[in-house]
TrEMBL record:
Lineage top rank: taxon: Eukaryota
Coiled coil (UniProt feature): none
GO cellular component: endoplasmic reticulum membrane
Organism, as annotated: Salix udensis
Upper taxonomic lineage: Eukaryota, Viridiplantae, Streptophyta, Embryophyta, Tracheophyta
Keyword list, A-Z: Endoplasmic reticulum, Membrane, Transmembrane, Transmembrane helix
Listed name of the protein: Stress-associated endoplasmic reticulum protein
Transmembrane segments: 41-59
Family, per entry: Belongs to the RAMP4 family.
Membrane topology value: Single-pass membrane protein
Length: 68
């Protein structure tokens, strides 16, 4: 058997082995639960700033007399 034939057979065997393992994901590798990248306090502060600034802008526009 030549070297290239041996390498080809080894590649085919690896490929066949991987075909039978497709879709079998370990349970530990999947994420469980709701883990947010930002803490709830920081998220609340961000929402407070965004909504507060928009309300402030609406009130300021209403008291100044519109867009003119």
């Amino acid at each position: 058997m030549t070297t290239s034939r041996r390498l080809a057979d080894r590649k085919v065997n690896r490929f066949d082995k991987n075909i039978s393992r497709r879709g079998a994901v370990l349970e530990t590798s999947t994420k469980k639960g709701k883990d947010y990248p930002v803490g709830p306090l920081l998220l609340g502060f961000f929402i407070f700033v965004v909504i507060g600034s928009s309300l402030f802008q609406i009130i300021r526009t209403a008291t100044d007399g519109g867009m003119a």
